[in-house]
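User: Structure tokens for this complex, please. No commentary.
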Amino acid sequence: MKFNTDFDYKERVIQIFEQNHFGKHLHFKFHKIEAGRVSGEMPLINEHLQQDGFAHGGIILAISDLVAGLAAYSITPPPFRVLTAEIKVSHLRPGVGDKLIGYGYVLKRGKNLHFCEAEIFCGTPQKLIAKASTIMAVTKG
Amino acid sequence: MKFNTDFDYKERVIQIFEQNHFGKHLHFKFHKIEAGRVSGEMPLINEHLQQDGFAHGGIILAISDLVAGLAAYSITPPPFRVLTAEIKVSHLRPGVGDKLIGYGYVLKRGKNLHFCEAEIFCGTPQKLIAKASTIMAVTKG
Amino acid sequence: MKFNTDFDYKERVIQIFEQNHFGKHLHFKFHKIEAGRVSGEMPLINEHLQQDGFAHGGIILAISDLVAGLAAYSITPPPFRVLTAEIKVSHLRPGVGDKLIGYGYVLKRGKNLHFCEAEIFCGTPQKLIAKASTIMAVTKG
Amino acid sequence: MKFNTDFDYKERVIQIFEQNHFGKHLHFKFHKIEAGRVSGEMPLINEHLQQDGFAHGGIILAISDLVAGLAAYSITPPPFRVLTAEIKVSHLRPGVGDKLIGYGYVLKRGKNLHFCEAEIFCGTPQKLIAKASTIMAVTKG
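Assistant:
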């Protein structure tokens, strides 16, 4: 799905990310920023594991929300902002590896709501470990 | 909803939590542990905020998953273990305050699946800021 | 949760329902209409069963969506209208019985979005067979 | 995603559908049956519309559940059966047209749980009006 934007979506996404304490706290790094699609990775450190040594559900939820939200921002010009209204994450496989790779993308752009999804990969070879479906609400900042 | 258990559910929940790097990383502290219901709180520090100064969606997801999962463990004796199969979180209000308070509880216990929910509160006076609905899969460790 | 309304919410809900071909097709009958809470029942006929003789998931989804949507309408005055943006339904138990009883209620009222839930009961004695969580988008008709 | 099966998946899906009163009640017709992927259509009659003349959420939920469940059956040999544990449906656009076309597919096959999705199209030209994400529980019939 391609989206047209009349603003600098790369700068927009990076600017929003710079204001996001939590994303930086997770040491998230961008791979690619497109209009409606953002990808990146974060290291999977010991503090992010649960009792079985897998990536904790919470950390998978966090990167899912992050990349889906940044994808939503890539098609949302100022002064509008984006908030996660709801998100569902399905955990397909346990996450074992040294980093999480996330792809967030917009399924349907709306005036008030964006429908987005995210896919999270982990391990060597990379496997799809989680898939998220979310509604992002557009608000006037 | 009350559940009967024939094992020490408090010890079980605490033991699982002690093995959970991520939960400890969040500085989660228990309020109460019952059979099928677990509550607690975590501080909302600067690293957990997003670009608008609200609690980041990811951190709300993390505590939702944590308390729902611990509630599931409170009715799941060893050698069985619990993994989040899916979770949906609705963000009702922005989270503003110095801590998040979470209640996780079991809606329906099953042999292979537990259906759980979580409610997250924030602020003074406390307001319900998020509600989660999740399926926890029971596995043989 | 109680909600204040400055319009006749009962008339509003009944009027919307009268325009709803699908709800009437299901032979839904109201039990009670309050501001933010609607309940009712529909017969579980042979055409609504799946291959194991249980209520089909689709029919449980239908009544969940119906009562949650009517609850949303009970707090939404004209000219505003309500559309289901997303709904998640958890099937806790197989539905066996001669009717489905549904409770829809508003968890959080918003300007653009209402967060609602629904609980579906079936059998004698009545058991909770499904629980739904939904976002209803408010639109200007 | 391709799946290997050692049973006649087409016969399996058709047999299950023949036992499904609700699916037949909706006048669902198959387009294609593959291992892990099932598509088909149902007419959008007046009884399936809501108060604005759009396809009712309940009917979109019904076909989503139906095609996702049949896709799950296409990779599940007897004596095992499949039940919808939970389903989330996002309504991207209002459904306007004379039929609904549904694609159900398996995202991840498991011993106890299948993760499936469904996409629902409507109108001329066909537009994606809904997307579903679901967990199907495998049970021993």
